[in-house]
């Protein structure tokens, strides 16, 4: 019943808009633009490899990883498309960056999440931007996730043009559904998702993920898809996705495919993971709330690192939020905590490197902080108790994964990547020299020194301890399920790496306690806990048993204090407790881990069978037998060297074949095709694996979006706006063009075109804008046209991602044409009347723009926007008269609590010069059924008369003030203030998951507006333009000036409703005007779009 009323209200509202809007309704088209910046610190010279299904683009230093990537993608293409049940319509373009820092310089997606009036259809592109993560293992997962995510988006929103237009009017599919399947395809059921769902089902009874963070949505969605695969089979995944593509509803697609009501399905999902959690909760424990030292984490911050000072007197930890980080140091003696350093940029619409910053103590009072700044990797050396810090650029490495100072801080070791190849390095800070410790294609991670020596411990997935090996040559060969501890003495570079552990698990973050004991994290039992390696007997034991995995930790042996990062009630926190590393414990393996180990062992068994199969096949293909000759330069494996005793080798005895009782072997199944579908085998058989390139990148253009919307201009009735935006793949070249056509075609039109060049730090632009206003009235033969044409060039220099300076020189020409038919009669056209006047101006405008806002919903922001703009028009012919303009626009958005927002705007504008123009105060943007107030001024700025050139109307500006008509006040100066309390219903309702687009975007607001417009005398003075009147009699030489004590400020207060209707953001304001200290009759105003 409620749904029927909602639909009826939507239909009635939209019909009212379309069919009752009268020719007297007016509109304003162009609004103030803010927006953030992307800064290019380096030049990108792009090339690409091409294959049957992909194009992988790369620049300097990325050639090797680009080839590996396209090779790996072709191998995985059939698996991905078969799993989701969707092949792409065109080749997928992958732009590969050497690091996240480089990717942040891309123009793709800048200001993409901000709000527009509506009617915009974004074209889904078969394109992905990837940043190399610093090691092959995590990069493999990232590649598959990004490609799958793109395919899901194309599948649901943009397979063809019709689907793109349809998707612009439908509700978006939630992130848990789309991001969850992408992560499931890339990593399956991993420990991170297992930890997340284990905690969620244990701490909450809600099955709605609306209030959770995006990361949590993805992890829980991953667990849902894993549950579907486990219970209903892998084929159900593609069936659900393809049904969702048709009906655009994730819940109904699950219901209809699985034959289970969605509520019942979610209960089964909860029971599935709850049952596996029961036994674990008995054996594992949670961190004690009293041990939390980082306080409540209400803002969802991520803690990246934690380190004790060498003497144990200080504990440093880093926390990150959307790219911005801070370093805090806790005094262990008095629990005094101070923030000693902060940095980074808040980038809510870009990928950030969640491994930065890294911490390492140079001595007991000097902390090293590794992070990225201005496109470079920096180590900031901060001494406690002093101001400032020393910043040193780390050369060569595009990504640093771990960093550790040797005592004294002059020498360090680190793991990272040069030319996208991960290795271990030494770094001499005094000389600025970086040298390789390893030189292969294995993943080296988490390096640290043995105290007081040049021996190191690191983590690696290498299968051998030899220094002289190449490692995996393709991404497919990279194994990410086994990382072990290795030791090495950098004073003896030709020695072998000493393998300390040999577990089928992933080890992380080694911490050397003394020469014989090493602590490290391991997921051996399925949850990341701390283990201790004993150098005396080469054994490892578990020493912690926390239910939710440890993300980072540090241990101080003298005080026996353990600091660690883990989760508590859905929040990451830093905990501190005393621990005895001499004790050990044994925790049960998680069901996920048991399945994972079984799968790994089964895969290894199939691999061995595959090798045996290939050996048997070689009997029938003797020409393919490998030669036994080894190149003299071939690298030897130290584990295998001398494995065969050639001096005392015993040959096996030959066995005779019993021809009377010979048993033929059963035909073996080719493991390379076992278990795969015919489609998958066919696709791989026809792929050809041909990779072409590298080829130089050439600019190719595509349509980014199309806007088909309406505006209601203050001077030209109801109008249709058509706009198209095109750009090259990298958004370095951007074209935008559009036309505004009034419903009454005789009212004039607007045409504009823009070009932007955004490849370098200084952005360049050029544009042409033509505005035409036609006024006709048959009763008095009025027929006038006013044209304004502007050619402009522009440049923009970004100081930071939030602040930029714009400078735009321009040439403007206005033309007034009077087409009164009576002027064709010579007697009615005196010589002093000119029916056509052209005015030329040369000028410039300059703006300082600040914007640090983040989009939290439709028409909802947090942060501050500000713009200071100066513009001047200099006369170029005798008809023109010079004038200038100064404007200041400041907007601030503050979130009072989880669902109430306070928004405020202060605006000031001033025209001055020989011919200042006017600000017309009152009304709102895109106001239907609007009214223009008759002016009491001697010259009405909106009056049109025969043979009267009112070209100033092309420059006048309408300024908003709710509760009043347009042009209630006018003057060459204006000042307004607006404040709103916004109550979004979707956020107010706890864990709501509203399906109706109307209800999900519904907002209630309470507002207060105040403003004034004046010429010479400010409204802050007792005598001003609005409360004094001059009385003059033409027959008398005397005049009088009286003060009528009118209030020079217009005020209004009221309430409003905002929501989305058919893709357009609509507003209803019910306001009570306050004028001259009296509250006037309430006014209802219907308008569309925009923030204020």
From TrEMBL:
Keywords: Signal. The keyword RNA-binding does not apply. Residues 1-27 form the signal peptide. InterPro entries: 6-blade_b-propeller_TolB-like (IPR011042). The keyword Signal applies. This is Translocation protein TolB. It comes from Roseivirga spongicola. The lineage of its organism: Bacteria, Pseudomonadati, Bacteroidota, Cytophagia, Cytophagales.
